[in-house]
Amino acid sequence: MELPHVQKIYEKLSKKYDDLQIIAVEINDDREGADKFIEENGLTFIFAAADREFVKEKFNTAYYPNTFIIGRDSRIKQHHVGFRDGQEETLERELLTELDSAGL
């Protein structure tokens, strides 16, 4: 499960980069279950709900989870499908690369 790892990265990097935003898009039809998961895991970044077909069409993906790193220029810088243990290190490195290249 990637979101607890993302939370740790968010907590670490948001101390230095106070404008870092992480937005998770929930496509599960079980909103109550999602809220419980968020609370149980202490997730503090932004969550949005979206229709599965909307996400599939707009982001051209049918597999989950997906992780996108979007730069200040609104362009996708990195895209990962799925999540494996250890991938959080890659994600953090890519975020740092993007944040540092933005001159912050």
Describe the secondary structure blueprint for this structure.
Blueprint: H1 3-13, E1 23-26, H2 31-40, E2 46-49, H3 52-59, E3 66-70, E4 76-81, H4 87-101
Parallel strand pairs: 1-2
Antiparallel strand pairs: 3-4
Helix pairs in contact: 1-4
Q: Could you walk me through the main structural features you see in this protein, from its secondary elements to its overall organization?
A:
There is one protein chain. A two-stranded parallel sheet has the order 1-2. With 104 residues, the protein is of the alpha+beta class. α1 (3-13) packs parallel to α4. It has helices spanning 3-13, 31-40, 52-59, 87-101; strands spanning 23-26, 46-49, 66-70, 76-81. It has a single domain (3-101), classed as Glutaredoxin (3-Layer(aba) Sandwich).
Compose a concise summary of this entry:
This protein is of the alpha+beta class and 104 residues long. Helix content is 42%, strand content 18%.
Assigned CATH superfamily: Glutaredoxin
How far apart are the termini?
Answer: 30 Å
Radius of gyration based on Cα positions: 14 Å
Percent of residues in β-strands = 15-25%
- Fraction in helix: 40-55%
CATH topology: Glutaredoxin
Give the helix tally. Answer: 4
Structural class based on helices, strands and sheet pairing: alpha+beta
Tally of distinct domains = 1
What kind of assembly state do the chains in view correspond to? Answer: single chain
Number of DSSP E strands: 4
| Main β sheet profile | 2 strands, parallel
Low-confidence segments: none
